[in-house]
Amino acid sequence: MRASVVRYLALGVLMVGLAAIAWTTLGGDGADDAETATNTTVAAEVTTTAVVTTTVPPEPIEVLGTADTLTDLDGWLNTDATSLEEIRAANKLTVVQFWTFGCRNCKNTLDALSGLYADFRDQGVEIVGVHSPEFSYEADVDNIIEAAADLGVIWPIALDTDKRNFHRWQPGNIGYWPRVYVIDGDNRIRFDRTGDGRATYEQLYDTVERLLADA
């Protein structure tokens, strides 16, 4: 009987051992489950949103009025033309600037005008510099010719010695040197600015470029 008890006890110990091994293999107390969850990489769904860019067109270039003519001139330089109308008829756009060679502000604009002339002259743009002297030495034609050569002014110059056109184009008590206009093919003023600011002549360039594109 004692032998049977011993055998039963040994069998019980064996069963307990096998159960312990099975428990460990199958996951034990759950610690392995927690570690497995921690190390699991979860793929995140990425949503791509398309960005739509809207380009706002520039404001239309205004019509500021009808351009006047140039009368009672003392002649022209750098051209065979004899009137503003003749120049306008031969071109798509005409840039008219009132200036005088002794004016520092006027001189400050000449590089910008030279660049515009170089870029657009062959596309139908002409510049007319209406020379309206402020002082007596600026009224002398020889001085104007010399100054124009020194300053690189190669576009037509209208000699407005008595400033009749200067005052008619700029009514009121104040006239400006320089003042620049753009006249289109229908004799409409599309640009009118005073002074020598860089922004003014950048806008002038942009206006000419846009009007040519629309012509």
Cα separation of the termini: 123 Å
Q: In CATH terms, what is the architecture of the domain at 65-214?
A: 3-Layer(aba) Sandwich
Spatial order of the strands in the main sheet?
1-7-6-3-4-5-2
What fold name goes in the CATH topology slot of the domain at 65-214? Answer: Glutaredoxin
Structural class comes to alpha/beta
CATH superfamily of the domain at 65-214: Glutaredoxin
Tally of DSSP helical segments = 8
Strand element count: 7
Based on Cα principal axes, name the global outline.
Answer: globular
Can you walk through the features of this model?
With 215 residues, the protein is of the alpha/beta class. The protein has a domain of 150 residues: Glutaredoxin (3-Layer(aba) Sandwich), CATH 3.40.30. Helices cover 40% and strands 15% of the residues. It contains eight helices and seven strands; from the N terminus they run ααββαβααβαβαββα. Strands 1-7-6-3-4-5-2 form a seven-stranded mixed beta sheet. α5 runs parallel beside α8. The longest helix is centred in the first third of the chain and has 24 residues. The protein is globular and about 65 Å long. It starts with a helix and ends with a helix. The N terminus is likely disordered.
Topology of this protein?
Elements (H helix, E strand, L loop, with lengths): L1 H24 L5 H8 L26 E2 L9 E2 L6 H6 L3 E7 L4 H4 L2 H11 L4 E7 L9 H11 L5 E3 L4 H6 L9 E5 L4 E7 L3 H17 L1
Parallel strand pairs: 3-4, 4-5
Antiparallel strand pairs: 1-7, 2-5, 3-6, 6-7
Helix pairs in contact: 5-8
